[in-house]
Amino acid sequence: MSPEHLVAKVFGLHPSRVTDATSNQDTPEWDSLGHVTLIMELEGHYGVSFSTEEALFLTSVGVLKRTLTERGITW
Amino acid sequence: MEGLRFHHVGLACADLDAEERVFARLGYTREGTDFEDPAQGVRGRFLVGSGQRVELLCELPNATVLRPWLRKGVKMYHVAYEVADLATADTAVMAVGARRVVAPVPAVAFSGRCIAFYMMPNGFLVELIEAPSVSAGWGSAADVLATAARRAFEEPRRLLTALAVVDPAACFRSIASGAATGLSREAVTSILATALSQVGPDMTAEDLETAAAALNANANAVPPDELARAISTLALERVPAFLTTVLHAQLERHATHPGLLRAAVALAIRAGETDRAHAFLTRLGLAEPTPATAAFVRTTRGRLPESGGLPARVALLSSFTVAQLVPFVDLMCRNLGVVPKIYVAPFNSWMREMVDEGAGLRGFNPHVAFLSVAIDDLVPELVGFLTPKELAAAGEEALGRVMAAVERFRGWSREPVVVHGFHSAFRDPAGVLAGRELLSRSQWLGELNAQLAERLRALPGCYMLDMVDLLSRVDAGVDAAKMRHLAAIRLPAAVLPEVARAYARYVAPRMGLTRKCVVVDLDNTLWGGIVGEDGPDGIRLGHTSPGSEYVEFQQFLAMLPQRGIILAVNSKNNVDDAMQVIQHHEAMVLRETAFSALRINWLPKPENMASIAEELGIGVESFVFVDDNPDERRLMRHALPQVLTVEMPRDPALYRATLEALPELQTLEVTGEDRSRVGQYRAKREREQMRMTTISLEEYLHSLGIRVMIAPCSEANLSRVAQLFQRTNQFNVTTRRHDAPLLARRMTDPGWRLYTLRAGDRFSDHGLVAIAIARLGISAWTVESFLMSCRVIGYGIETALLAAIAEDAVAHGATRLDGEFVPTKKNQPARDLYERHGFAMRETIGGVQQWERSLAPVSIAFPAWIARDSDVA
């Protein structure tokens, strides 16, 4: 499943609405609880682990994908 | 030059299998079988798939033709084209300055058609292949078409797969009209997966209708992932009703498939079916209990009108973040049929909320309150070293704070309050020396929890949820370190569903959902095997496996009376067989006196259930029904939805845990009256005779929609018929073990008639379940064999078959139907077959009872509640 699909699933959005620009600034569902849920979902799905500091900065789909790519994750 | 048609790319390989594995990852599959061409010194393999056809080649032993390519690591060996006439093409290629490397020669790979190789002036190696129509000398287009059709016929799988890629609608159309008949289920699944993955918004309504028809016709081969994806890509208003039907049929097969459930939720919302949407949301949450899905389920519910159900107010108070727990608590309450309002006290205000009369909790007035205070929050110093003295003092103070809050709460609310027992995220600072010199942290916690339990016990309606026990049962750790730092979350995500399930075990009894009576099946539920078939000594019940699982389960059931819950039996067995086990089997835990009511007979189970309710004087809504057989469970859910029919796991080793976790078997209080009720029911049973219920049996049978198809035995089902002859012991009048050769002879002998009966009802297809053999006489026909599967006893199916035989006999001028019966130890269920249908016993010859019945003026009536499908001769 792509990061876009995971974001869509966690926040209950239609996948077509999720782009690299989607962030916690323009998505009301992406609140602090939603963010924690998203991090858990990403970690579970891709088998990665983010430090708390990293997790705090993963606030847009673009950043999220770049970080996953840096970790050698493909989808 | 003209007339070149691309055929394949040839690649030089050292190892065909290794190459193929790589290409397989790219989506290529093997075409045909390997070939060896000694003339070229190669072994080859064709692959087709994502791009153009690829030919993998390796050298035969002692050949060196590929050596230059292999040595340089160059894969690309040649490109091959088909040409209509090799001689003409040869001339044309040579004219461009090519060098003929291999002159035209018949090739193994192409069934003897000629090939030739040319090195072009630019170093490009080209293979030319003679096209088949020329070398084979086929004249007419009709021949070519016939060959193509034959190939398609021989390889429908590949043809349909290709069609699925190119034109999914056409592929569905072909499958709907039967093109996939005869293919293996796995092949159909693969074709449907390909076709479904091509479904997109551009499909027309008719195409979608055809797709639904194709899926319907192959319901056992539909790939759930692809179906869910296909539906989700369509705009919802465009999903036709029949596709919804297909989806629901698939959900019967894949009841816990999250993708299908999501699609079902969306469609139900779209159709305005609120209750259905809520039900699917509950199933989705249970099927995929992750925080994301649970949150999605709760959010989606928030946008729907509320479903019907018992409203409950549940309060969560905590020293840490429990927001993620809320969707799970909601989910587990819904699963009980409860619609909860959940109050979450503001962050870390648990103490004020419980104590302060003006706080939100008081206004909310919960039915149940859950208090989770982490010892690590109460005693932050636990992160470092504490002396035993400091530990003791800190523990005492922590306990005092929690108890003060609980006592104040008790002062204004009589409702139950559940307090989490303490657990800590931190290990003992002494490491392996823990407990060696000083009191260990876990020992300290254990003693603290014991004190907590004791002080809660002194107050009414206060319960401790043992978190150490709960956490030890879930493979998730005791702490979510990262989430604790990030969001003050102290419970790992994987623990949340279990905590919510534990909460539901308090909510259920508080809301009056406790059931009074557990009604159990016997065969494969209380013991392994079927006592009527395996005998009392052949069943699995004892102290080693298989068998110990059932003992463990029975031990649990035997303890239920301590909670004021009684037991009863509802089973299809010969009463003598079953009582033999219950009273005399050495490993049986539950003897006759353990049960307040027993129904061991061949009546439909809902019928028995109603009669147990009447005998015990309680409503059927007090029952939990435990049966290993999914058909019986479906029937019970349909006939008596008020009964809680437990979805039992297939593995008996999990029976006990399934009932242990059941919220509806929890009680918050056991009174002396509850305990004595168990005895009262037993006494009542001894006073009352077992009797039939007042519900009309026939009315019930009508509601089942039973269909039968009675047909002569044929080659196609001969093996199944022979198998039933070998296996059937209970409902079998003569227990003659006819084998296939004898049956085959009688099938064609005009002196005999072999009947088979298939049965189904609105819930399931039972398949071929009854067989009879009649010997044809002039004035009388004789039933020589008559056997039926025990699963369908009690529906009048045997009557249907006897009536059909009688009808045929009358049509052939007979006026009497005779029947033979040979009593055995096991055929008790068939013993009264003839008597029930108006036969009288004439005599017994050599151990064979001879029964007879006149067919004039009245024959045997076909049961009014059974529909007879037309016979297929």
Write the layout of secondary structure elements.
The complex is a heterodimer of chains A (75) and B (873).
Chain A: H1 3-11, H2 32-46, H3 52-57, H4 61-70
Chain B: E1 5-12, H1 16-25, E2 29-37, E3 42-48, E4 54-59, H2 67-72, E5 76-83, H3 86-95, E6 99-106, E7 114-119, E8 125-130, H4 132-135, H5 141-154, H6 156-166, H7 168-176, H8 185-197, H9 205-217, H10 224-233, H11 241-253, H12 258-270, H13 274-287, H14 291-302, E9 310-318, H15 325-334, E10 338-344, H16 350-355, H17 360-364, E11 368-372, H18 375-378, H19 388-412, E12 417-420, H20 441-457, E13 462-465, H21 467-472, H22 481-487, H23 496-510, E14 517-520, H24 531-534, H25 548-559, E15 566-572, H26 575-584, E16 597-601, H27 605-616, E17 623-626, H28 630-639, E18 644-645, H29 655-660, H30 672-687, H31 697-704, E19 706-712, H32 718-727, H33 740-748, E20 752-760, E21 765-776, E22 780-788, H34 797-811, E23 816-821, H35 833-836, E24 840-845, E25 848-854, E26 866-869
Parallel strand pairs in B: 1-4, 5-8, 9-10, 9-11, 11-12, 12-13, 14-15, 14-17, 15-16, 17-18, 19-26, 22-23
Antiparallel strand pairs in B: 1-5, 2-3, 3-4, 6-7, 7-8, 19-20, 20-21, 21-22, 23-25, 24-25
